[in-house]
Amino acid sequence: MSRIHLILSVLLLCSGLWPGLAALVPATAPSVALAAQVDETALDDQVREIAKTLRCAICQTENIWESQSVLASQMRQIIRERLQQGESPEQIKAYFLSRYGDYILMKPRVRGWNWLIWGGPFVLLLIGGLLLYRTLFRWTAVPASTPEDNPLPLSESSKQRIEDELRAFDK
Hints:
7 helices; mainly alpha; Helicase, Ruva Protein, domain 3
């Protein structure tokens, strides 16, 4: 019977009807463990800030603060332990960088070949804009003179050939 009371208590709690229907559940029912309130300390804040800058090696698109993987949990624990030992956030990030490389950072550093990742799109956008400008300018540019305005003079042999072709065409 106590199992039924536990299930009923959980259902009432989840449905939001707990305050109004609490009197219906006998006092002998086992108590439901409610989520404990977490008292965040300055250490927890530092752990969260550092963990948000490091990528989970398993999830790959989540930082280790948001990831639910076991590895992310272990990494958060390492961060907490190292902060308690007095290491700075930079030293902790350097530790993870030495083990996992630049990939572990959610925001890659701008050094070496990584500058291509940061500057490449802007350079390509600039080059594309210049090519577009040049192409549009050529399309809309008015030529200085057209061949119809200034025809080249024909030689006598060319005039004679044209006359012969026109006569042959009329026949």
